[in-house]
Design goal:
One of its GO terms (biological process) is aerobic electron transport chain. This protein is α/β, with parallel strands linked by helices and about 400 residues long. Helices cover about 30% and strands about 25% of the residues. Bound molecules: flavin-adenine dinucleotide and nicotinamide-adenine-dinucleotide (NAD).
Length: about 400
């Protein structure tokens, strides 16, 4: 009797961020070697923790601490890694076009992360730093140091060399200025620049910094940052970024050689390019995390949009939710392969903690408000928890942060 050999299905994961890495580790654990071919595609040979990037951008942490080679975390005997850039998803043909080839899939997980949202403000891509990636962080750090070096090496130094603008007082903007303001004394001492020459602005369109966050914690954070020399301009939308600085909606200009853009994110441009129905690059996924109308395509992390029915607004794009989605996505792919019913995804928001540089942070965990060093401790624990979920205690020991 002839034995028929069934073809193993191809599971392809696009993007090795929080969502992609957790999906990959869970799938390799849940599926036997003979059950599927699993492939992870990422544009770099390394995985990076986006949530740490404000630190290397301000120069308070080495960029290498935020990244790790993919082969140091994943067992490449169980999963194939392809270093390449995704160009387009051909949904009907069940294949993905890469910069250097193409790859066929039976099941696809799209988790290509986010890109900067400009809300149509001109000049962002040309004159501001807006890429929250390892190389983006390196660029900001080097640029800041160059401004300091140039200031003292110019016959008539311009004040704008030492003016630093952060656009948006969301969590990214606040965490970045927290690190930069903490590093300022060291930069001033190193480059022989009087501290009073440096200006740091955080410019926010909404009537408050960190809109929607606990007002008492916002006040604590703003007071602390102001005590380090940060000036907030609240209720003050930026209308344009130019070669010389920013123009506000009021028409006023602030001259600055450095504008760091942090006004929020949209999903990957690959989503739109591939013809998926989307809202600002994010696909409103079904409750089982599949793209509507596509039985075999899961979309998770910052590329996915899910509505919080309690407030009728989308859940924020966070690593916390990306990781939770990845767990359910892996379970659902296995269920789909076996013909079982799929799980419904419901985020379990444990809290939010934002660092303010040094040993300072603010946060809400469960119903508890945290300030100062206790919030700082919690933030480091959250950073380490991710490493634990990804690679167990060994990875925390190797790559973790000291909570002190
Ligand atoms: P990512 O983690 O960004 O991963 C996407 C991956 O896809 C990357 O590896 C990228 O290289 C790869 N990729 C992109 N395009 C392509 C392509 N065309 N081809 C191949 N590969 C590609 N969230 C929290 O919950 N807590 C926090 O404390 C927190 N802090 C943050 C701090 C900062 C400074 C920033 C910027 C964000 C922070 N966030 C935080 C948000 C969080 O980082 C994101 O929600 C999270 O990274 C989303 O995970 P993801 O897997 O969807 O995308
Ligand atoms: P965000 O949407 O949270 O904040 C962006 C801010 O920019 C808003 O306050 C908005 O009013 C402001 N803004 C928009 N247009 C503007 C303009 N033209 N001029 C001035 N201000 C303008 O975005 P983010 O801070 O980039 O964060 C992105 C995602 O990552 C969010 O979901 C956030 O929760 C998450 N995140 C979480 C943490 C944390 O938990 N510690 C840290 C960083 C980011």
């Amino acid at each position: 009797m002839e034995v028929m050999k069934l073809k193993k299905p191809n599971i392809v994961i696009l993007g090795a961020g929080y969502a992609g890495m957790i999906t990959a580790t869970r799938l390799t654990k849940q599926l036997g070697h003979n059950e599927a071919n699993i492939t992870l595609v990422n544009k770099h040979e390394y995985h990076y923790q986006t949530t740490w990037l404000h630190e290397p951008a301000a120069g308070t942490l080495s960029p290498d601490r935020t990244r790790m080679p993919i082969n140091s975390v994943l067992d490449l005997n169980k999963i194939k890694f392809v270093k390449d850039s995704v160009v387009e998803i051909k949904r009907e043909e069940k294949k993905v076009l890469l910069q250097n080839g193409e790859i066929e899939f039976d099941y696809l997980v799209v988790c290509l992360g986010a890109e900067a949202e400009t809300f149509g403000v001109p000049g962002v891509h040309e004159y501001a730093f807006s890429k929250w990636t390892v190389n983006g962080a390196r660029e900001v750090k080097e640029h800041i140091e160059y401004q300091f070096a140039k200031y003292n090496n110019t016959p008539e130094p311009q004040d704008e060399l030492l003016t630093f603008i952060v656009a948006g007082a969301g969590f990214t903007g606040i965490e970045f200025i927290g690190e930069l303001s903490e590093r300022l004394p060291e930069l001033c001492a190193h480059y022989d620049v009087p501290k009073e020459k440096v200006k740091m602005y955080v410019i926010e369109a909404a009537p408050t910094a960190l809109p929607g966050f606990d007002p008492e914690l916002v006040e604590y954070g703003m007071n602390l940052l102001e005590s380090r020399g940060v000036e907030f301009k609240i209720n003050c939308p930026i209308k344009e970024v130019t070669e010389t600085g920013v123009t506000l909606a009021s028409g006023d200009e602030i001259k600055a050689s450095t504008v760091v853009w942090a006004t929020g994110v949209r999903g990957s441009s690959i989503i739109d390019k591939s013809g998926f129905e989307n809202m600002r690059g994010r696909i409103k996924v079904d409750l089982d995390l599949r793209a509507p109308g596509h039985d075999n395509i899961f979309v998770i992390g910052d590329c996915a949009l899910m509505i919080n029915e309690e407030i009728n607004r989308p859940y924020p794009p966070t690593a916390q939710i990306a990781m939770q989605m990845a767990e359910v996505c892996a379970t659902n792919i296995k269920a789909l392969m076996k013909g079982d019913s799929l799980k419904t995804f419901k985020p379990d928001i444990k809290g939010t903690v934002a660092s303010l540089g040094g040993k300072e942070a603010i946060g809400v965990v469960g119903t508890r408000k945290l300030f100062g060093s206790s919030a700082h401790f919690m933030k480091k624990m959250i950073d380490n928890r991710y490493l634990f979920l990804l690679g167990g205690p060994g990875l925390v020991l190797k790559r973790g942060k000291s909570p002190m």
